[in-house]
Design goal:
It is a single chain. By secondary structure, this protein is α+β, with helices and mostly antiparallel strands. 40% of the residues lie in helices and 16% in strands. The protein has one domain. It contains two helices and three strands. It is elongated, with a radius of gyration of 19 Å.
Length: 88
């Protein structure tokens, strides 16, 4: 019984990572910074998400071009926070 449980667990883990290997573009995602109009809050958005950011209750503007890593996007956000371009 332990072997069956271990086999099922291994197959489950393999099934969860298999789509990442099937779609190589999923591993090279990009991130960009958006700013909501009504609050001034900035948010990092992933380009691999299938949906767009919500336009309700406020519209948003894209503040940066897509960058390769979250660390780069956080650096852009930190610079905008210091210069007053973003509130949060």
């Amino acid at each position: 019984m332990r072997r069956v449980t271990a086999l099922c667990a291994a197959l489950g883990m393999l099934a969860s990572i298999a789509p990442a290997f099937a779609r190589p573009h999923a591993l090279s995602s990009g991130y960009y910074l958006i700013r909501y109009d009504n609050t001034g809050a900035c948010q990092i958005w992933n380009t691999n998400l299938t949906m767009k950011p919500l336009h309700w209750p406020s519209d948003y503007k894209v503040l940066s071009k897509p960058v390769a890593t979250v660390t780069e996007a956080l650096a852009i956000k930190q610079g905008l926070l210091q210069n007053g371009g973003c509130r949060i």
